[in-house]
């Protein structure tokens, strides 16, 4: 996989190409009676086969067959056998662009599907970002986008279109993750200094908060008879921040709150006791 690609060749094939397994071919490309009635309306063998192949592609993988694309041999042979014509007839059909366009229009109406449009990009970009928050894998992100389109009966665009959207979504998700972790990624020195000063303020507030609570905890333990040497306390760092919730609104009261401390947790409480 290249640097600016989000899918490996194997993943791209699995997501955007027809299946090649014999069982999958039978399961997905066995035509119904209605399908066969529609296919038989074509007079020439080449048109019947081409129409049937396009029908199969629109169902799975859910995209339009490429102009110069050749279907997998096993898939083509299975479809040709159903409509009693030779697989070689497809070579003749592939040369008829106007016939192909007419067939695609008729098949989209028959299957009640539509082409991918520009307005769909925003919707699947949102899907991609949501998926990228939970997974960094390209195939997982693109799979979620494809599932979204299939549920809404929208044909898949070119693979590169979805891959580019997925790449942008993953980059945005990573940026948000870095931001939540407190990393400074601004390029200008002024913005870096501004964010660093804010980070220093947050660190100082956490240290002050922890120091005050540590003082209360030490006093409470000593009042209960616990022996806590000052030499040991000198090695207790007030830098922990796992218990700090950074999200939300920050309200600074005009006057100090005298009773703002929460009750100290009792380390000997029953719910903390082991089995």
Summary, kept brief:
This protein is mainly α. The chain has helices at 9-16, 22-29, 33-39, 45-59, 73-82, 89-93, 97-111, 119-134, 138-151, 159-180, 189-223, 230-233. It has 3 domains: 11-111, no CATH class; 119-180; 197-272, no CATH class.
What does this protein structure show overall?
This protein has 275 residues and is mostly helical. It folds into 3 domains: 11-111, no CATH class; 119-180; 197-272, no CATH class. It contains 12 helices and no strands. It has helices at residues 9-16, 22-29, 33-39, 45-59, 73-82, 89-93, 97-111, 119-134, 138-151, 159-180, 189-223, 230-233. The protein starts with 8 loop residues before the first helix and ends in a 42-residue tail after the last helix. The model is unreliable at 271-275 (pLDDT under 50).
């Amino acid at each position: 996989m290249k640097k600016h690609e989000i899918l490996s060749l194997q993943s791209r094939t699995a997501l955007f190409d027809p299946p090649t397994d014999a069982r999958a071919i039978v399961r997905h490309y066995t035509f119904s009676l209605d399908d066969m009635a529609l296919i038989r309306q074509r007079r020439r063998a080449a048109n019947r086969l081409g129409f049937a192949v396009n029908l199969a592609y629109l169902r799975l993988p859910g995209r339009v067959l490429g102009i110069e694309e050749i279907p997998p041999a096993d898939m083509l042979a299975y479809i040709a056998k159903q409509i009693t014509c030779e697989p070689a007839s497809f070579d003749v059909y592939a040369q008829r662009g106007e016939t192909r366009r007419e067939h695609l229009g008729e098949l989209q109406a028959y299957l009640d599907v539509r082409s991918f449009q520009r307005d769909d990009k925003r919707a699947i970009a949102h899907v991609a970002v949501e998926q990228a928050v939970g997974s960094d894998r390209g195939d997982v992100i693109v799979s979620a986008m494809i599932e979204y389109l299939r549920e809404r009966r929208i044909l898949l665009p070119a693979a590169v279109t979805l891959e580019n959207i997925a790449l942008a979504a993953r980059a945005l998700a990573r940026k948000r993750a870095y931001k939540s972790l407190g990393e400074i990624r601004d390029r200008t020195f002024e913005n870096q200094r501004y964010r660093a000063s804010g980070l220093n303020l947050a660190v100082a507030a956490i240290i002050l908060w922890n120091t005050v609570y540590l003082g209360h905890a030490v006093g409470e333990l000593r009042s209960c008879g616990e022996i806590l040497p000052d030499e040991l306390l000198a090695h207790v760092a007030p830098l922990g921040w796992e218990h700090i919730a950074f999200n939300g609104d920050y309200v600074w009261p005009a006057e100090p709150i005298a009773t703002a401390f929460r009750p100290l947790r009792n380390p000997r409480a029953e719910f903390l006791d082991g089995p």
